[in-house]
C-alpha cells in the first residue's frame, strides 16, 4: 500500500489492518497484537501482585479483551433473527421474456445480456430467535443485496409470495401475537389464532403456512418472492407494476411435520449446514429471477387490488417472465461480520426501480432501515458487507462508530453541506424522465375496497394435492384444538368461506380432537411430557 512517511520514516497515513505490511521489530504476519497495534507477549496471564495476588487496574490488554468480549453480540433482529448467507452473482438476460428489458426499466443491471452483478443473500426464519431450530413452521426470509454500478439494490422478501396483513399499522401486533407469551415465554398458538381470527385477510397466508409450504426442506430448494408490488420505470418516465419471484433450479422441496420433527430431534441447524456444505463442495445453488408485469393502475376488472400483498397475481393473465439468474458460489468468511451484520431495506432501490403505493411496502421502507440503525449503528452502511461497491461521497458526518469520512478527493473539508459555491459536493445529472404518478383523493383511514379475503385461499386449497390437503388439515387441527371455542369457530368460518370442504374438514377434525382429548388438556399433555423428561434424567452426586 502507498503510505506517506515523515522524515523519520514513521508511517503517518493509511489504516492499519491484518493485511498491512508495516511491522514492528520482531513482528510478522501471524504475530498477535491488540487493536492499538501493540505486540502481545503474554496472552496467558494477567498482571498481579505476586502470582496469587490481586490483579491491578493497569491490565490494559485484559481490560480491552474482556470489554470487547462483553460486547460481542449486537441486539438480535426482532424478526428474521435466525439466518444464513452466501455470496454470489446475478447474471442478466438483457430481456424480460422475449422483449428488450429497456422497454420497461432503465435499471442498468438488467440491460446487457451476460452482465454480472455481485450479490449477497441472507436466508432466515422469521419468528424464532437467533438459535431457534430451522425446522419450525414459519415463513422464510429471502433477502438479496445487489452491489450494482449505481449503488446497492436490496430485494427483501420471503419464500412465500404473499403475507398475513396488508396494513403496516398491524405489523407490531402481528409479530407480538406470533412471538412467545410475554409472561411464560412459551410459544402459544392460541395467541396467534386469536389475532388471525380478527384478521380475515390472513386466511390465505395461513393456508400456505400450515401446509407443507410452511416448512421448506432447506434454503437451496425454496422459492423467493419480493411479496410487495414495486414499479419499473423506463427512460421516458413510464412505469409498470412489477412483482419479483426467485425459482430454484435445484427444484422445490418442503417437509411434512413428521419429517421436520425427525430432523429437529438431531439437528437444529440443518438448513444452514446444507447451504454451507453445498457451496463448499462446489454444488453452487442457482435461482432464476422472474417478474410479473402489470400496467400501472387500479385494474377494476380484477376482483382484488394489485397492490394487496395478501394476493397472488394470476400467472395466466400475468405470466412469469425470466430476466436473469443468480448463482451463490462463496461462503462467508465470518458469520458475524457478514451474515449477522448484513443490513437490508426495502427502500434501497436504484435508478429505474421505484415504489408502488402498496401500504405494507411503504411501512416496511421506514421500518427496515430504521431497525438497522438501532441494531448495527448509525454508520452501518460503512461496514464492508453493507457498503456499495462503488464511489461514495456524502455530507453525512459523525455518529457512533464512524471510521471514515465520505469526503470526495479535492472536496473543501470545511463544506459539509449542499448547495455550495465553496468547493462542496454537487448533484448528479438525471438519466431519464422522472416518474410522476398523479393523485386525487382524500386523506383517509380506510382499508382497500376489494379486500376479497377468502377467494384466493380457496383457490390455493383446491390446488393442493391430497398430501398437502391432509397435512394442512392435520396441522391446523393440532394448533387450533387448544384454542378457545370462539377462536375455533371464527377460523372455521373463514375456512368455510374460502372453500366448504376446507371448513368442514377442519371442523370435523376439531370435533374428533375434542373427543380424543376428553378430560385431558394440552397443558396436561405438556405436564406429562415434562414428567417424562424428568424421569429420563440421570441423577448424579454433587461435586
Automatic annotation (TrEMBL):
Keywords: Heme, Hydrogen peroxide, Iron, Metal-binding, Oxidoreductase, Peroxidase
Active site: 80, 158
Record carries keyword Metal-binding: yes
One Pfam family cited in the UniProt record for this chain: Catalase-rel
Record carries keyword Heme: yes
Chain residue ranges for the region called Disordered: 1-23, 511-543
EC numbers on record: 1.11.1.6
Span of domain Catalase core: 33-426
Gene3D superfamilies: Catalase core domain
Cofactor: heme
Root EC class: oxidoreductase
Source species, domain of life: Bacteria
An MF annotation (GO) of this entry: metal ion binding
Catalytic activity entry: 2 H2O2 = O2 + 2 H2O
GO BP of this protein: hydrogen peroxide catabolic process; response to hydrogen peroxide
InterPro entries xref list: Catalase, Catalase_AS, Catalase_clade1/3, Catalase_core, Catalase_haem_BS, Catalase_immune_responsive, Catalase_sf
Family statement: Belongs to the catalase family.
Function text: Decomposes hydrogen peroxide into water and oxygen; serves to protect cells from the toxic effects of hydrogen peroxide.
Designated name of the protein: Catalase
Organism: Brevibacillus composti
Amino acid at each position: 500500500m502507498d503510505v506517506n512517511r515523515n522524515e523519520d520514516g514513521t508511517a503517518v497515513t493509511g489504516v492499519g489492518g491484518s493485511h498491512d505490511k508495516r511491522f514492528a521489530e520482531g513482528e510478522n504476519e501471524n504475530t498477535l497484537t491488540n487493536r492499538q497495534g501493540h505486540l502481545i507477549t503474554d496472552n496467558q496471564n494477567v498482571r498481579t501482585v505476586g502470582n496469587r495476588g490481586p490483579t491491578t487496574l493497569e491490565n490494559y490488554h485484559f481490560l480491552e479483551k474482556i470489554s470487547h468480549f462483553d460486547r460481542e453480540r449486537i441486539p438480535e433482529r426482532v424478526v428474521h433473527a435466525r439466518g444464513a448467507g452466501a455470496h454470489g452473482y446475478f447474471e442478466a438476460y438483457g430481456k424480460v421474456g422475449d422483449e428488450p428489458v429497456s422497454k420497461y426499466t432503465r435499471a442498468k443491471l438488467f440491460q446487457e445480456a451476460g452482465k454480472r452483478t455481485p450479490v449477497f443473500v441472507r436466508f432466515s426464519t422469521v419468528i424464532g430467535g437467533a438459535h431457534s431450530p430451522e425446522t419450525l413452521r414459519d415463513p422464510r426470509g429471502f433477502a438479496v443485496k445487489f452491489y450494482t454500478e449505481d449503488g446497492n439494490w436490496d430485494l427483501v422478501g420471503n419464500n412465500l409470495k404473499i403475507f398475513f396483513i396488508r396494513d403496516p399499522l398491524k405489523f407490531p401486533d402481528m409479530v407480538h401475537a406470533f412471538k412467545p407469551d410475554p409472561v411464560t415465554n412459551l410459544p402459544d398458538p392460541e395467541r396467534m389464532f386469536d389475532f388471525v381470527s380478527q384478521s380475515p385477510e390472513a386466511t390465505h397466508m395461513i393456508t400456505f403456512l400450515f401446509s407443507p409450504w410452511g416448512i421448506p426442506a432447506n434454503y437451496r430448494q425454496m422459492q423467493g418472492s419480493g411479496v410487495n408490488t414495486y414499479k419499473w420505470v423506463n427512460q421516458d418516465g413510464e412505469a409498470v407494476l412489477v412483482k419479483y419471484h426467485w425459482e430454484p433450479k435445484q427444484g422445490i422441496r418442503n417437509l411434512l411435520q413428521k419429517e421436520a420433527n425427525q430432523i429437529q430431534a438431531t439437528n437444529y441447524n440443518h438448513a444452514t449446514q446444507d447451504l454451507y456444505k453445498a457451496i463448499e463442495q462446489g454444488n453452487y445453488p442457482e435461482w432464476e429471477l422472474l417478474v410479473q408485469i402489470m400496467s400501472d393502475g387500479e385494474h377494476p376488472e380484477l376482483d382484488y387490488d394489485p397492490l394487496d400483498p395478501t394476493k397472488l397475481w394470476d400467472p395466466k393473465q400475468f405470466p412469469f417472465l425470466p430476466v436473469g439468474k443468480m448463482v451463490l458460489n462463496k461462503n462467508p468468511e465470518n458469520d458475524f461480520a457478514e451474515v449477522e451484520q448484513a443490513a437490508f431495506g426495502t427502500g434501497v432501490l436504484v435508478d429505474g426501480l421505484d415504489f408502488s403505493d402498496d401500504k405494507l411496502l411503504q411501512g416496511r421502507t421506514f421500518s427496515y432501515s430504521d431497525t438497522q440503525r438501532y441494531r448495527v449503528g448509525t454508520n452501518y452502511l460503512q461496514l464492508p458487507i453493507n457498503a456499495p461497491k462503488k464511489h461514495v461521497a456524502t455530507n453525512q458526518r459523525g455518529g457512533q462508530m464512524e471510521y471514515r469520512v465520505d469526503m470526495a478527493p479535492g472536496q473543501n473539508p470545511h463544506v459539509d453541506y449542499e448547495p455550495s459555491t465553496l468547493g462542496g459536493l454537487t448533484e448528479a445529472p438525471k438519466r431519464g424522465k422522472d416518474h410522476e404518478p398523479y393523485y386525487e383523493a382524500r386523506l383517509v383511514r380506510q382499508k382497500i375496497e376489494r379486500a376479497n379475503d377468502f377467494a384466493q385461499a380457496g383457490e390455493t386449497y383446491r390446488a393442493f394435492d391430497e398430501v398437502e390437503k391432509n397435512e394442512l388439515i392435520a396441522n391446523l387441527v393440532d394448533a387450533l384444538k387448544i384454542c378457545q371455542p370462539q377462536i375455533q369457530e371464527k377460523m372455521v368460518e373463514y375456512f368455510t368461506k374460502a372453500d366448504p370442504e376446507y371448513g368442514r374438514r377442519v371442523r370435523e377434525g376439531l370435533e374428533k380432537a375434542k373427543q380424543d382429548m376428553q378430560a385431558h388438556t394440552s397443558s396436561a399433555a405438556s405436564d406429562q411430557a415434562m414428567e417424562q423428561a424428568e424421569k429420563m434424567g440421570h441423577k448424579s452426586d454433587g461435586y
